[in-house]
Structure prediction request, 348 residues.
Amino acid sequence: MEISPISDVIMRSFLLATVVGLPLLIAACDGRSTVAYGDATSIIFATPDSVWSEVADSVHRVMEPRILTVREERTFELTHVSPVDPKWTRLRLFRQVLVAGRPEDPWVAPVVEAQEESLPPLPAIIVASDVWARGQTVTAVVLPPDGGATELAALLPDLHRHFDGRFRDYARQRMFVSGRNDSLLAALRAEAGFGLLVPKVYEVRQPDASTYIFRNDNMTGGILERTILVTWTEGKGSRPAASAESALEWRDDVAAKHYGMLPQRTGRDPIETRMLGSDESGGLEVQGIWTGTDAQFPMAGPFITRIVPCPAQDRTYLLDAWLYAPGKSKYEYMLQLETILDSFECGA
Prediction:
């Protein structure tokens, strides 16, 4: 059977492109005429050079952690500028701006003034919107009168959690622009014995009785392929105990059978592994890099493979998600794939 009855409940939608260009001059009732620009992962950081020289290494290490894609990729791109540099006038119009200094400093005072609540005890992290441009978010590390690099460095982990959490919310909101496919979720529960929540823009097909493939090949803005495969075996001993190599071997099998649209080879180095629960009974996740099999057309991308046991069904599931996004920052799309995988549920 090539097409599942579940396809009856699928609705195909197209994501509208979110275009962020150079600032546009528009009429604005609040007096601000410039629209913020820049990517959601780009952060402009304004603080004096004297402070930056002491914290630069720590800031880059904490605020720009790497993720494994086709190479180690920064999750955020942070650019420092001195608030007395003429470039600051332009760079403060970015969508994501971070400033650090005392409440009365000219680059911090507008953020403090934009707060409706009183300033908390210092040092503190505060957030304001549309300070210098429309559609921007400005985060300020407000230091006490005698504060400086030491106080700023101590707040870096909180700063990263703040920026990363906000970006994760942004990525999840964007992935569901087409809507949640709740009808597909209900049909999967009833017919397949598992649940998976995907946006409506994803197509689904069932190439065999125990395999479902969910695919989004929306081409807006260039090549962008996102695929999630769910398959399973039944019966105790039908699959070896979960290990990184057993997961990769299983992925090799499904890639050979079902990834003909982009033939690929599963890489073994580098890989990252983690348990999905407190021990191996909760399942295992392996992340790595797939490469194309055609030497004339070199391709590569990241994958996330999970082995999930479901004793109530006497099943062991393989969940495999992979991305092909040449020339694009991949953090947002990896978060989207993780969100879909995290929605997986199995049961009797």
Remarks:
- The longest strand covers residues 300-310.
